[in-house]
Amino acid sequence: MMDKANKNWVAMSDDAIIKSIGAFIKHQRIEENRTQQDVADDAGINRTTLSFLENGDNVNISTLIQVLRALDLLDILDVFTIKDQMSPIELAKLEEQRRKRASNKRKNIKPESNW
Q1: Which of 5, 21, 81, 114 has the most CB atoms within 10 Å of its CB?
Q2: Would residue 17 count as lying in a domain?
Q3: Number of domains present in the structure of the chain
Q4: What is the largest CA-CA distance in the chain?
């Protein structure tokens, strides 16, 4: 299968995106040399449901997750991870609070008393 890394997802229709996802699933299944029945059994779904997914028909998102799990592809969901990012203002404030230089070590000398 040809690698089409530069797909314009925004310009694609919903149906075209679903078909691309189905083609990806089918490609990965075949690369692992697994039958539809084998993957469907591992995913806990009907083989027909997997066939619908591979052909670009609408399926439930939980079905997609089950199939990704069966194909050991859940790591592709990392793209949905929310990354905590600090605002530039917060970053500047933290930078201000950071030490700029080392302090003098003061010897513990007791002042002389005139008592």
Answers
A1: 21
A2: yes
A3: 1
A4: 98
